[in-house]
Amino acid sequence: MPLLDGAKKKKGFSTLDMVAYTLVFICFNGFLGWLFLQSLSLKNEFDLWLIGLYCLLSLVSFYYFVINDLLASQLKGRSMALGFLFAHGAFTFIGYAQVFQIPANMVWYISGGLLVAAYVFGAYGTTRFSRYNSQTREMMRLSSETDELTGLFNRRHYSRYSQRLVDNLQKKSKPLSVIMFDLDDFKHVNDDLGHAAGDVVLIEISRIMQKNLRKSDYAYRWGGEEFLVLLPQAHAEDGKQVANKIIQQVADQRIQYHTHEITITISAGLTEYALHDANLQQTIKRADRALYRAKQQGKNQAVVATFEPPEAVPVNGQ
Predict the structure, then answer these.
(1) Residue tagged active-site, from 148, 225, 237, 311
(2) Structure pTM?
(3) Stretch 71-91: mean pLDDT
(4) Any alpha helices (H) in the chain, and if so which ranges?
(5) What angle do CA 99, 105, 110 make, to 5 degrees?
(6) Is residue 261 flagged as an active site residue?
């Protein structure tokens, strides 16, 4: 039973659990059989094929009741487990109806009612589990696409969605600004106060960035202390305003780390996606070169990349 084995690995089902459910199965079915035996007479002829079929369906329903009930806290599906339990009761009753002389109306009403209850509980439990499963997958996806420390997007998110973003903006003839940020002299923070202090600084810088960006913007932790920001539907002039605002707020911020007050600055290089760019990575490289110039010119500032015409394509190999 691979499903049961997998469940054991996940939840650590104990032998006591399985014994308890087995006893419930025996007691429930045994009591029902004894009750019928005391109150009803046996049929003259048994349809063994039908009896075997309903016994099998009953066992399967009870098996899935056990699995779902034991995993209910994980699967959010106790209602689903109850659905299988009612289905077990319905198939058990129909099976006994092949052995004992139970009035046909009683069989229809009781088994039908149990099956309706099984469907209702099962459908509700399945819906809840499906919603829970979707939420879990979404959380896992977001977790895999965000930086654990800062909560910003990571390179995996960039590789999945950046080209889609560019294509969508190109179709609408909308601009895209790209900003590369890098903390100035961040190594001194790690060397003087330790990496824990550096983490506090990175978290605070990320908070400042998120506060100054729109919901439609994308902020990435690109490297150790390097950040990438994509601004859809924003020209370079708009991007520079955003970059300057973030630079100013970072410079003004006093970051507390135990008894230390940390001040730090950040530099930025920015550019706008151009039609002659082969891909977004080429735009990012241009912004990165602008960032390098910002560092050379004294740091704590934003520099807009100068226009770089596309490289000439050689003709006839010359």
Answers:
(1) 225
(2) 0.62
(3) 84
(4) 2-11, 15-39, 48-70, 72-75, 78-97, 104-144, 155-171, 186-193, 195-211, 236-252, 280-296
(5) 75
(6) no
